[in-house]
Amino acid sequence: MTTGEPGQPRTDRSPWNWLLVLPIVLPLLTFLFNADEPRLFGFPLFYWLQIAFIAVGVVSTTIVYRMTK
After folding, report:
1. 3-state DSSP call for residue 2?
2. pLDDT per residue over 4-24, tens digit each?
3. Where are the transmembrane segments (predicted)?
């Protein structure tokens, strides 16, 4: 694969790629959401924190894409 420039090999060794570990590891830290309180709009912590994890994944993926483009 090439980067679009002839003779230039593609490299995926950018330090920005380490940011992609965040959305993988963050949901695995169960002590973060092992509670019922606080509630947001009546939803327990677990449910709205899962939505926050999705947002973290989208933001981190977007940052890595833009910085390594």
Report:
1. strand
2. 566 777 667 899 999 999 999
3. 16-33, 45-65
